[in-house]
Amino acid sequence: MKIALIAIGDELLNGRTLEKNGHWLAGFLYENGILLNDITIIRDDEEVLEETFKKSFECNDFTIVTGGLGPTLDDKTKSIIGKVFGGPLKESAKAIEIVSKQYENYSRQWHRESNSYHMIPEKVEPIFNPIGLAPGLKFVDSSREKYIFCAPGVPREFFGMFEKEIYPFIKSHSNFPNETLRQVTVRTRGVPEEEIFYRRCPGLWEKLSEFGQVASLPQIMGIDILVKFYANEEEYKKKRDSISAIMKSCAIAENIWSWEEGNLEEFVVKEATAKNLTIAFAESCTGGLTANRITNVSGASQVFLASYVTYANEAKINALKVLPKTIEEYGAVSIETAKEMAAGARKSAHSDIAISFTGIAGPGGGSKEKPVGTVAIGWSTKESNDAKLYHFKGDRELLKQRFSEAGLFKLLNLIRSSETN
Amino acid sequence: MKIALIAIGDELLNGRTLEKNGHWLAGFLYENGILLNDITIIRDDEEVLEETFKKSFECNDFTIVTGGLGPTLDDKTKSIIGKVFGGPLKESAKAIEIVSKQYENYSRQWHRESNSYHMIPEKVEPIFNPIGLAPGLKFVDSSREKYIFCAPGVPREFFGMFEKEIYPFIKSHSNFPNETLRQVTVRTRGVPEEEIFYRRCPGLWEKLSEFGQVASLPQIMGIDILVKFYANEEEYKKKRDSISAIMKSCAIAENIWSWEEGNLEEFVVKEATAKNLTIAFAESCTGGLTANRITNVSGASQVFLASYVTYANEAKINALKVLPKTIEEYGAVSIETAKEMAAGARKSAHSDIAISFTGIAGPGGGSKEKPVGTVAIGWSTKESNDAKLYHFKGDRELLKQRFSEAGLFKLLNLIRSSETN
């Protein structure tokens, strides 16, 4: 079964808006056993829309369109869908019904002349918008079992309409896969890609390829290796165990830190919750990024108590009781300051573990001895209070990410080596 | 002049990795007067690559390819470029030179058998990679002045190679525009899109269209209206003044909060710096997001002192001196608690202004009286200490964004209404 996405909007092609619907759709479909065939991002241009719609409809079972359904004149999806597939715009009783319902839900008054939401191409069906006002569109060529669906470009509206209104049709399609696309994930840290496959473990790629399609994906701080295949539950478990045995006996076994999907902050929250450990941070250069990542995980409140984002030195002294002398003598970016920050955060928050970050994210503030990219990461637990200096490369945002990643890895290791509370 | 981007990788189509190179490229080109024609994201599949390369080369002056240049077997870009345009792989003296140089720069030893970086299709030129190891590729059809460039998929490598090695060629192309694509930006808050164009300001779209192409872009908390046109500096100023006069006399004049591109946190840092004001936050539900946003702006250290991410009630009491009685009596999510959090943050950080956030981002934690999406935003300045309750909709991450956005808007207004320090 082939599904493609077309995303429409000049703002997606001038650097203003990052197209995220494709990423979400791809993940949603993949979890349901389908690999999205492609994503095409095009301008608000009638000719381009027409040509792209036609081509995608020919090549795919399902074409999903996002964007261009709003009430303003730069929204051209409906008229072009009409031109290519559905005929001229006509008043649609069903559109009136579903749009009226949503205006009522939002306690707003519908002025039809403001948006023409009630006008729908003759052979097209309007789709209820569970999150917003503009209805979606559905055109079917029943003889060839081909579909085109149009949904709004605003991400939450797109997600809601796809999940609740569009996906059920896709699932009922005759080509929907019976077997599930499965994946075995092996996540490594500390060895470059070519070092893994050519120096340390020659032949590993070929060995893994016997189980399915292999992919090697560089992450911010390591390489994830994936093996994908269609299988039922039993076959999946067998293959997973074989792959795991191969990996555990290869030369990078020690560099594997996880066998599961999910980001680092999810592992931290899950594993700290399981061990009943509480966490605090003292953040300078990361500026709240680490706390923000942890609090994106729902359930974070089980383990996360506080982060002291002490950007100014005075704040480090007041909130974390760092000694002014330490900062004077060693500098704010130093092992000594990081140690005191971590100890201060742990004490103030009464947490089991605290991690601190003090470094230089740039572009300014670097020196010969401590260039941009230098970070001291400290930790404090019942047993130990120490810190380590690292050097990373990148621009301001990437460095913040790398600093944060290094601290969360330290935290995960402390959680793993800690005895259950 | 037509430029298109092709991004390659299964990981971009299974929800694992968000494709960001297109967004960056689009912004970079737009600043240089060019609208990127389209972005196509495709799988690591030889047939798909071949077909997509051919089609894009036909339709565009420049095709930029990102991804599939790495050392592992899922990297197929080079062989397909060879098959379609450049002939069989041969040892390239230039590739050996540029790759050796980078291995030296990184103090690593190059084992040719690990990656075949020295093998390049006959009619293709290798491109120096200023940020990484894998060389890029360049194929030219000189008679038709058509180019295809291949760069790595890792964003920082893509950005570096495009900016330093690929863009200079594009700029020297005969079709490079003489005039610059300009844009007038009008940013509004508090009025829905259709309300602006159909109820309050009918005819506004048409009036603005006389100056160029109009776009209306819904943001997290408002609508941005853009007018784009090619113009030299003088024409641009004239048009900008006329558009500004129209907007200032229309019915949504009071809803305009900015005439410039840039995100809210950039405005906050810029305007607070200009007025010599310092800032602190007390964040509960936003979990450090607000501090993270502010510290993504370089120069933030001029104005931002600290954020107290007090997720646990105990942390609110210890770090911000919120009275236990206040939390008991009114709850952690209340105007009263938000007021005390803001006052505590301002006092502890010795800042001019402090903003506090306490709310329910969900999915758990809501109640009938205080459903998920409720937030109290507090502020403290020399003159006032107060708070306001808001209700928003969305999932956890969106709610964190909306809470943070509402607080930063309050902050921006306080900065704007403050007298210079």
Structure characterization notes:
The structure is a homodimer of 421-residue chains. The first copy, chain A, is α/β, with parallel strands linked by helices and 421 residues long. Chain A folds into 3 domains: 3-171, MoaB/Mog-like domain (Molybdenum Cofactor Biosythetic Enzyme, Chain A, 3-Layer(aba) Sandwich); 180-258, Alpha-Beta Plaits (2-Layer Sandwich); 264-417, Maf protein (Alpha-Beta Complex). Chain A is 39% helix and 24% strand. Chain A contains 14 helices and 17 strands. The first copy, chain A, has helices at residues 21-31, 46-59, 77-86, 93-105, 155-171, 193-200, 204-209, 233-248, 264-275, 289-295, 313-320, 324-330, 335-349, 396-417, and strands at residues 3-8, 38-42, 62-66, 89-91, 119-121, 125-127, 136-141, 146-151, 180-189, 213-218, 222-231, 256-258, 279-283, 304-310, 353-359, 374-380, 385-391. In chain A, strands 2-1-3-8-7-6 form a 6-stranded mixed sheet, with helices on both faces. In chain A, strands 14-13-15-16-17 form a 5-stranded mixed sheet, sandwiched between helices. A 4-stranded antiparallel sheet of chain A has the order 10-11-9-12. In chain A, strand 16 and strand 17 (385-391) form a beta hairpin. In chain A, helix 2 packs across helix 3 (77-86) and helix 9 packs parallel to helix 14. The first copy, chain A, is globular, with a radius of gyration of 27 Å. The mean pLDDT of chain A is 94. Chains A and B meet through helix 1, strand 2, helix 6, strand 10 and helix 10 of A and helix 1, strand 2, helix 6, strand 10 and helix 10 of B. Strand 14 (304-310) of chain A pairs antiparallel with strand 14 of chain B.
